[in-house]
Design goal:
Number of domains: 1
Number of strands: 7
Number of helices: 0
Helix content: under 10%
Strand order of the largest sheet: 1-2-4-7-6-5
Order of helices and strands: EEEEEEE
Largest sheet: 6 strands, antiparallel, barrel
Strand content: over 45%
Structural class: mainly beta
Length: 112
């Protein structure tokens, strides 16, 4: 058994690392590392803030079945199509409820 309450499924997207790529160039297309992963995305704190100009940053919490998830990945909710950036990810183990817990953020708008 893993995540006891799954409200969606996610896909894990990873941009290939290329040390020779100029950081100002467009990023290459992301590879899909996993899909159909049972998950629950929530915003328990309701934290959001305007980072400058019209840029808005909203934080979320993810709980999902065990999967290779890194802090540089992106997560796409397969039901809504929303995409989030992974800020941190940690495995949680014990009592037959092994799962991954992660912090997500979603940025919209632009900074001035």
């Amino acid at each position: 058994m893993a995540v006891p309450l799954a409200t969606t499924t996610i896909a894990v997207l990873r941009v290939p690392v290329d040390a020779t790529r100029d950081p100002y160039d467009a990023q290459p297309a992301a590879d899909t590392v996993a899909s159909g992963v049972r998950a629950h995305i929530s915003s328990p704190s309701g934290r959001e803030h305007v980072a400058g100009g019209s840029q808005e940053v909203v934080e979320f919490r993810l709980a999902c079945d065990p999967v290779d998830l890194r802090h540089t990945d992106r997560v796409q909710d397969e039901q809504t199509g929303s995409t989030y950036e992974v800020v941190w990810a940690r495995p949680r183990q014990g009592l037959g409820l092994d799962h991954i817990e992660a912090g997500l953020k979603q940025v919209s708008g632009g900074a001035r």
